[in-house]
Amino acid sequence: MTFQEHILQGIPDNLPEPKAYNPDINHAPKRKSILTDEEKKLALRNALRYFDSKHHETLLAEFKNELESYGRIYMYRFRPDYKMYARSIDDYPSQTKQAAAIMLMIQNNLDYAVAQHPHELITYGGNGGVFSNWAQYLLTMKYLAEMTEEQTLAMYSGHPMGLFPSHKEAPRVVVTNGMMIPNYSKPDDYEKFNALGVTQYGQMTAGSFMYIGPQGIVHGTTITVLNGFRKINKSPKGNLFVTSGLGGMSGAQPKAGNIAGCITVCAEVNPKITQVRLDQGWIDEKITDLDVLVSRVEKAKKNHETISIAYLGNIVDVWEKFDEAQVKIDLGSDQTSLHNPWAGGYYPVGMSFEEANDMMANNPKLFKEKVQETLRRHARAINKHTDKGTYFFDYGNAFLLEASRAGADVMAKNPTIGREFKFPSYVQDIMGPMCFDYGFGPFRWVCASGKPEDLAKTDAIACQVLEEIKKHSPEEIQQQMTDNIQWIQGAQDNKLVVGSQARILYADAEGRMKIAQAFNDAIEAGEIGQIILGRDHHDVSGTDSPYRETSNIYDGSRYTADMAIQNVIGDSFRGATWVSIHNGGGVGWGEVINGGFGMVLDGTKDAERRLKSMLFWDVTNGISRRSWARNDEAICAIKRAMKAEPNLKVTLPNLVDDKLIDSL
């Protein structure tokens, strides 16, 4: 069969041959056994309902073995034989190009060069799934191929519930992931209900089909590192940034360090992903010996090098060794997947990767004890460095949260609301006041043609738009504009594309709308093919997360999720091609609600109307909430927005004299 015929077939009537387990692929670790015997039977019933009863006897034994061997039923037999990557939009069978664009983005999320565990349908973060099993993938692609502009596909945590009558202005797909009743949103609830096949962890852009590889976080990390050095009044050149994690998201850190111009040391325990990052050019060197690492860093400091070094081993050993060897760390952070601490997101010090994985699956209680012991040791080592002047920040991966739960020394001596930890979140001190409050966040686009020349043209268009906007920008956002222009001018040189022909930059509502309008005009003129717009959920208004995106909200509302819910509802009736809302992502199951969108530009007046309506709301919703929280930068930004748009009328806070409150 052709690729198109495979898509239209969906779940095959005749069983394909079983697939051999490929040890060369980076696989998800075995999940802990959490189901009772009766629940295991239920998980098998749930899996078999995708298939004709004539296949149940054959598949039952196979799925039972998967559940026992891996802790999940992935349905490996049904993994497609065709290569998984983002094809040109014209290669997909479809009734509407909007649906074809979504198929393109799904395949990009599962591209072997992009996905962390491609055979388990996990894009990044250890458990950020596009789907829970291969039957869901096959059925979803078939539905998308058949969909018209009078239908909407409802996606329930990876399961395509079906095509429902709607209308041309409605989203083509509405995605929900992990939307649990609140009392059933603890970590073990995820393990149980995911094993049953009834929910999944979509992370942020994994389950919303909008991941663009590590580039998606390279830009944000570059801005964070640059502003981190600015905060301590140091140049990145010749100075040291130490962190950990080389997975789907964290793998961006070494590349960002190179762009910022510093020395980066990033530790990673997984040898396969470390080698992948080396082969991709996302790290410059790999070192396995701590003494060699110390010598190499000292040489880099002496010569003021810009270099990224991966240490294959545990980050705790690096912090401790650098303290012992008196290696000065200027900037420090961590980006291991501590939202997922008991299932492969963070590894205990003092044991091999293989030993840790075995303990994780077969002795989860001891594994948890070892992880928490390591977190306490990790924090002690960081404290030794911060006492000597290191600036350490939490990178929104729940490091401080999980360290505090482990009893580590990370709490502030004199805590205030929102400042409970002795170290700040990067959002609190850097991204929040410098970017999000002004409306700047991770706007992104994908060239649906798959042509590198289209990406080059869009880079040039975006740069031209930004340079024009900068001429009239207020002083408060001049730095953001300058950083953006520098980024986009160097984007091609830094070889950031992994998977789809995509780009990201931080832009506010004005920038997003004007760039999108320029793209739409270029499409209409036949200069470029169709464009898919999106953003990271980690944005101005997409996510409510008290220890990350909304950690600089100090009015007590950082634990509410109204903003994210309003965001996705508003996007859905203002023109988004698809919308998504998730529980979990970045900081953990039950710790965050986050939403995203995708929008197809096709050069039409309909697309022009939608982009103006939706992109303006998508940003100003968040600025208004941040303004109501009394954030000075957001008050400034929302006043500018109201001046630009007469139909926008936002409730502004009346500020209270601190002396009056303190007198009580």
Structure, briefly:
The chain is α/β, with parallel strands linked by helices and 664 residues long.
SS class: alpha/beta
Taking the sheet with the most strands, its summary is: 9 strands, mixed
Give the CATH superfamily of the largest domain.
Answer: Urocanase superfamily
Terminal CA distance reads: 77 Å
| Poorly predicted tracts of residues | none
Question: In CATH, what is the class of the largest domain?
Answer: Alpha Beta
Question: Which terms summarize this structure?
Answer:
single chain; 664 residues; alpha/beta; Urocanase fold; Rossmann fold; nine-stranded mixed β-sheet; six-stranded parallel β-sheet; 22 helices; 42% helix; 14% strand; lyase; Urocanase_sf; EC 4.2.1.49; histidine metabolism; Urocanase
How would you describe what is shown here?
Pfam families: Urocanase (PF01175), Urocanase_C (PF17392), Urocanase_N (PF17391). Belongs to the urocanase family. By secondary structure, this protein is α/β, with parallel strands linked by helices. Helices cover 42% and strands 14% of the residues. Strands 3, 4, 5, 14, 15, 16, 17, 18 and 19 form a 9-stranded mixed beta sheet that branches. Strands 8-9-7-6-10-11 form a 6-stranded parallel beta sheet, sandwiched between helices. Strand 6, helix 8 (252-260) and strand 7 form a beta-alpha-beta unit. Helix 12 packs across helix 13 (364-386), helix 16 packs across helix 18 (509-524) and helix 19 (562-574) runs antiparallel to helix 20 (605-628). The N and C termini lie far apart (77 Å). The mean pLDDT is 94.
